[in-house]
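Intended use. Records like the one below are meant for learning the mapping from a protein sequence to its folded structure. Do not use them to infer anything beyond what is encoded.
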Amino acid sequence: MAFRLIPLFLLLVFLNASPLEGGTGTPQDMIKKITEQLATIDAPKKRAKLLCYRARNYIKAGDQKKAKDDYFKAINTSYEGWILNELGHFMYKSGEFNKAYNIAQRVIADFPQFKDEANKLKKQARQKWEEDYWKNNPPQITIDSAPDPNRKTRHDLIRQTESKSYNKSSNTSTYKRQKKSNNSTSAGNSGGSLIRGFGTGSEFRQNYKKSRQAQ
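Structure written out for the chain above:
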């Protein structure tokens, strides 16, 4: 079984591969060969694949603009998931993170078989876009008017309220202590508790004797 599967797999790879895929030579040589081959091919899928190969060689040659043009030509020639996904990664590496994010979303919507890789690209592109945004647009605090010396903040009002509460509590405690002290002084001066009609202390004993004698 293994002996039969290996030749079949190699055959499929051979049939689907482009004659220039994995070719040798400088990027400029490969670009020239692919351009010549594109002039003889009309099938959309084959043309799109060759355009992607030429875009990769443009990247190696350092020509990002022509690489980008070929990727867009490829996706417009044959709308396929692997081409759109490769375009998204190209945009990410080129620093166009917002476009890479949008392309990743499109891949997820139209080609679910690539959603795992597209989700990863989407997350990375969003993170890089946010980093670049805050780097180029740092938050600034601008004071456009002179400060008001009479302005009271929320913290000022809280401190004012606490101060009033403390003073009120302190005055109440002082009044209670004074009242207690006055009561104690009055009781000491009387010499004892008052009994109506007889007075207090020694006066009570004298009045009591006088009332007994009168009887």
